[in-house]
Amino acid sequence: MSKNQKVRIDLFDQDYATEGYARERSIETCISTCKEFGASIDDTIKKVAKRFELMYDDAADYVKYYWENK
Fold first, then answer.
1. pTM for this structure?
2. pLDDT at residue 1, as a whole number
3. Domain boundaries, the chain
4. What is the DSSP string of 50-69?
């Protein structure tokens, strides 16, 4: 592998990690906003699932975590 290929792979990995971090913060912000405006946990799960194209159970995991820990 050439040095240029290695640099491109490293940059791709960094972009992928940054994208994952940004998505995680977006999900957290959505949950926080729903909670702040008095949405129920179930409505928040549905909103997160729809907005971030997640399965209900995956969205529920996020909501339960951030609802209790933030």
1. 0.77
2. 58
3. 3-69
4. HHTT--HHHHHHHHHHHHHH
Q: Which of 19, 38, 25, 27 is nearest to 64 (CA)?
A: 27
- Three-state DSSP at 4 gives helix
* Tokens representing residue 50 in the block: 């729809």
Q: Indicate the DSSP class of residue 39.
A: -
Q: Please list the ranges in the chain whose pLDDT falls under 70.
A: 1-18
Q: Please give the pLDDT value at position 2.
A: 55
Q: Collect all residues with Cβ–Cβ distance below 8 Å to 48 and sequence separation of at least 6.
A: 27, 30, 31, 34, 54, 59, 62, 63
